[in-house]
Amino acid sequence: MNPLIERFPLSVKVGGTKCRINWDFRTVLSCNQNLKPYQCKKEIPQKVLLKILRRFYPEVRVFTEEHIEKWFWFLACGREEPSKKFPKKVAGINSNQPFDFDVDAELIYAGFLQQFQIDLQKENMHWWKFMILLENLGAETKLSKIMEYRTRDLTKKGLTKEERTFYKAMQKYYSLERKGERPDEKAREIEDALLRGEDITALLAGDND
Q1: Rounded to two decimals, what is the model's pTM?
Q2: Average pLDDT of the residues of the chain
Q3: Spatial separation of the C-alpha atoms in residues 115 and 137, rounded to whole Å
């Protein structure tokens, strides 16, 4: 899909029939919350799937396999699976999840306001537009910095000992797996020092990992 010459879809065709959809980002994020507990499982409970489909297709009550396929197609912003995988190792990127819609909700909100002057509390935005903007937040936003911390490959050659120590501390501090745990004290000290514009050499030197 080319957003420069094509409009974001407001409906999908299922079995040759045009189906109106709830295309806004809030609807999709709400559906995503319902899916989240089952993201590592092979199957989604029928009750949960029906709840999602009924919200996405406001005028449909009987669903087929194609309705489900079109929902996931819309969720993926209409993108086909790439035939070649991006060489993450070459780019210095690990396989960690870069962000989470729930954990990073405030950072996403702040990033849109900072860079695009878009208040997501007021905006009725198409899911595809939302994702395009989210994926292209500038490096000056805090979310982009945190995403870099989470995905930095610490085994990549060229990193100094200090850089490796720093990224390791930041990955531990901002790990999505922590979810509510108290952040590592040293990582907090490093982050606070950076926010104050202070030299963190002494803090990094104290870590022998």
Answers
A1: 0.79
A2: 84
A3: 7
